[in-house]
Design brief:
single chain; about 70 residues; mainly beta; three-stranded antiparallel beta sheet; about 0% helix; elongated; Small CPxCG-related zinc finger protein
Length: about 70
């Protein structure tokens, strides 16, 4: 059985984790359109992450400042 490394809760089905999407325009990952984290539903510990729909400029219009 898989357990959260922080709170030791059992991770046995989809309700035991949360998928959180962060938009790259917020400045977290400038080369990505979407950045995902997988978190423990009990304590919020980040268990993993992923990237989808990559764009070279992170969707920013206007160059270096990244302002839309």
């Amino acid at each position: 059985m898989v357990h959260c490394p922080d709170c030791d809760s059992t991770l046995s089905d989809a309700d035991d984790v949360e998928f959180v999407e962060t938009d790259a325009r917020l400045g977290f990952i400038r080369a990505s359109k979407r950045f995902y984290t997988i978190e423990c539903a009990d304590c919020g510990n980040v268990l993993g992450n992923g990237v989808a729909a990559a764009q070279g400029n992170g969707g920013a219009a206007g160059g270096a400042g990244g302002a839309d």
